[in-house]
Amino acid sequence: MLVVGAGLAGTEAAWQLAQAGVPVTLVEMRPLRRSPAHHSDEFAELVCSNSFGALSSDRASGLIKEELRRLSSVVILTADEHALPAGGALAVNRGNFSAALTEKLSNHPQITIERREQQKLPEEDQITILATGPLTSEALAKELQGFTGRNECHFFDAASPIVKGESIDLSVAFRASRYDKGDADYINCPMDKGQYLAFHEALLNAEQAQLKEFDKEAANFFEGCLPIEELARRGEDTMRYGPLKPIGIWDPRWGDLNDRDVRRSKRAYAVVQLRKEDHQGSLWNLVGFQTNLKWSEQKRVLKMIPGLNQAEFVRYGVMHRNTFIESPQLLEPTLQFSKRPNLLAAGQLTGTEGYAAAVAGGWLAGTNAARLAMGLTTTSLPPTTMIGALTHFVSSADCTGNGERQFQPMPANFGLLPELSERIRDKRSRYGAYRDRALKDLQEAQQL
Predict the structure, then answer these.
(1) Which of 95, 169, 206, 359 is the most exposed place for a label (fewest CB within 10 A)?
(2) Do 327 and 379 share a domain, yes or no?
(3) What are phi and psi of 121, to 5 degrees?
(4) 270, 292, 317 — which closes off a domain?
(5) Sorting pLDDT into bands at 50, 70 and 90, what band is 139?
């Protein structure tokens, strides 16, 4: 049994195989060959944000994590163990999280780890999971392209900068969570209108980094992970309705929030939020500030943010190309390749987007690879679950693979789920009903 790639999906897939009693070899090319975006040799490294998204199960990203908990996902349970305060989100200390998973897999008696690059597809009779993620090596990507007979698909993804907590000026910035939900887990940098407009203008004129190791063609950004400078180009107020949204954020030093006159005169025009990278609060990442600006430009422009004028950067933002296959033309809902059932794909390679979605693909591919090894029928989860809906979408989306209906990556979202039997107008109640149905159907599926 072979799993190629020790990212989120590969880590989960290998663990599910091993827990089923199936010996598995996990192949990871780092550190012998590094990707443009990874910084360590640990398994399941979080390349962009340290957040898995919303905790609440009446949110799409929260529901998929709750489903994974009930399926005994090693990645999500480990994330829970290393969670950081982050308001309504599941954020982790990314170093401790990855180190813990590396140790768990390295010590499992059924898992053999090989540090090498897999350049070829294995023989057809070998059950294999491809979980090479969005940064699949060039050699294997070409091999996969030849196998599928289809052109490579890709979009561009970008990571946010990280600054030292002690370098943030808290006489200007302040701690709070939006709408005071949970503890004051975010540092907020408020902008007035003049500061915001100057910042917007600086982003528009800042110089971007060249695409060196990537194809020098127009970047096709995934909408859920747009660089901040791309958002700025979409309009003067776009950032204020996105990551710089000021609604629900209030500094008690401004006065009484319940005083209408104070609220009107003191509220921020825009707010930049920073989220913890570690328990100590020594490192903070700029939420929603994925960027492809040159590092010197990042240092200059980002220091225009109030409270960050003396910020010390421990990592600047980077951009990298993400590879994914045309899954609707190639995969079954079980994540098996239609023309080669012993070959499965998992994670972002399949066109799912988001950390938890990658883990979900790893769980399903690992579970089905184990069933193949034991001579059992492969399975898929009900489309009323978030995992089932997502895997059914990537295996059957209505697209041509070219032209106007080209397949693009998809995150977990309630729009994928079948409609409820009764119409519920209130959105929060409707999402709660989706959740209740999903968890009920998941429980029934587990009992089969």
Answers:
(1) 169
(2) yes
(3) -70, 135
(4) 317
(5) confident
Q: Are residues 233 and 330 in the same domain?
A: no
Name beta bridge partners: 176. Answer: 186
Q: Please indicate, yes or no, whether residues 195 and 230 belong to a single structural domain of this protein.
A: yes
CB 58 within 8 A of CB 244: no
pLDDT(221) > 90: no
243 and 390 in a single domain? The answer is: no
CB 312 within 8 A of CB 319: no
Other CB atoms closer than 10 Å to residue 194's CB: what's the count? 9
Pair (346, 246) in one structural domain: no
With CA atoms as reference, report the closest residue to 27 among 154, 131, 167, 156.
Answer: 131
What is the enclosing helix (H) or strand (E) of 397? none
Residue with tokens 């995934």: 222
**pLDDT tens per residue across span 101-128:** 999 999 999 999 999 999 999 998 999 9
DSSP 145-159: HHHHTS--EEEEEE-
Question: In this structure, what token pair is assigned to residue 160?
Answer: 């946010």
168 and 144 part of one domain: no
CATH number at residue 36: 3.50.50.60
**Cα Rg of the chain, angstroms:** 22
What DSSP element (H or E) covers 14?
A: helix 8-19
Q: 320 has which bridge partners?
A: 157
Q: Which helix (H) or strand (E) holds 196?
A: helix 193-205
Which residue in this structure is represented by tokens 């408020």?
190
Q: Which domain holds residue 400?
A: 2-157+321-446
Pair 111, 201 in one domain: no
Of residues 352 and 67, more confidence is placed in: 67
Strand ranges, E, within 178-290:
186-191, 270-276, 283-286
139 and 217 housed in the same domain:
no
* pLDDT for the residue 100: 97
